[in-house]
Amino acid sequence: MLRIAVPNKGALSGSAMAMLHEAGYQQRKESKELVLVDPENEVEFFYLRPRDIAIYVSSGKLDIGITGRDLLLDSGADAEEILQLGFARSTFRYATKPGTATGPQDFDGMTIATSYEGIVAAHLTEAGVKASIVHLDGAVETAIELGVAQIIADVVETGTSMRNAGLEVIGDPIMTSEAVVIRRNGAPADDPKVQQFLRRLQGVLVARSYVMMDYDCRVEHLERAVALTPGLESPTISPLHHEGWVAVRSMVAAKEAQRIMDDLYELGARAILTTAIHACRL
């Protein structure tokens, strides 16, 4: 069986299990379940702490895993990402009290508090900065107020929590992160079970990003309509009973669907419908 690590809690967990369910895999119903066997799909899922997943995968005990790019890089594990999953996106940045520093070039001799020691250490080394790092498991915003550090490095979404703590974000982003599928470095890239798993997840990503659009169109307007809805390869076109009309079916990006419907209507298309795509293979 293919052995897969899945986050057991936190922001990654719910979205990861939802995607796996959409991909046709069984998922646990109770949070206490640590292992779930899906015999129909020949997969065994292990629910682990997100921070530990890269370590297990790099050891070869598990074939692949779902974790955050930030957690993968911070672990220093001998593993690599092989598919971006598009959720749990975040930006990792430095912050401090106004007037303390403007970026890493000012950090020499200072102390930086973070939950991501590996990422910060690598970034400082790359920048040629000599600073101390204090590892904290959470709530790093208070480190400056309590005198533990002059700088913090943490995940920043809107920056509201930083501002509420009297801090300002400084410098360029250290990195951007999202949920990713990982495997051990050197693992066979053509493993058929892994490839099937990746195809399923890629199918979910496409299904979430596209809708199927159907509409009726006059033949004389067809070329202009097809230019609006070219599809992934080309649209399906079928003649209608009424002469001079055709039915068109095409996949379009979900975020552009309403605008395309407006443009098609102005062009003279009618019976314009969109339907959700639940699964696909490209």
From TrEMBL:
SUPFAM superfamilies: GlnB-like, Periplasmic binding protein-like II
Enzyme Commission identifier(s): 2.4.2.17
Subcellular location: Cytoplasm
Domain called ATP phosphoribosyltransferase catalytic: residue spans: 49-203
Gene3D superfamilies: 3.30.70.120, Periplasmic binding protein-like II
Involved pathway(s): Amino-acid biosynthesis; L-histidine biosynthesis; L-histidine from 5-phospho-alpha-D-ribose 1-diphosphate: step 1/9
Record's GO cellular component terms: cytoplasm
Molecular function via GO: ATP binding; ATP phosphoribosyltransferase activity; magnesium ion binding
UniProt domain Histidine biosynthesis HisG C-terminal: residue ranges: 207-278
Name of the protein in question: ATP phosphoribosyltransferase
